[in-house]
Amino acid sequence: EVQLVESGGGLVQNGGSLKLSCVASGFNFSAHYMHWVRQAPGKRLQWLSSISENSDTTRYDDSVNGRFTTSRDNAKNTLYLQMTRLKPEDTATYSCAVDTYTGSYLDPTLRGQGTEVTVSS
Hints:
six-stranded mixed β-sheet
């Protein structure tokens, strides 16, 4: 069973930084692409970033490109999201998700519960 547990969220001022973590278990973490997604209140799930199994490929949505950095430590089964220059519109619940042959971040069983990030103006 896929288990993904995010942490590191909180309240931060406009322009501030946060680093989120996602600890994975129940699957071979090092063999899967991973994603970060977010959902703001009343809005649709938004894909933010992905990272390949060995970290050689990362991709970002335009809204966070240049401000957010995704990384992973396969020895620790942990995914990270370093967020800088945060804006009030970044306020959302952030979740990590695993990419599999049967599904990806749109499947709630392949996503964690998320950690809340609030950016004050």
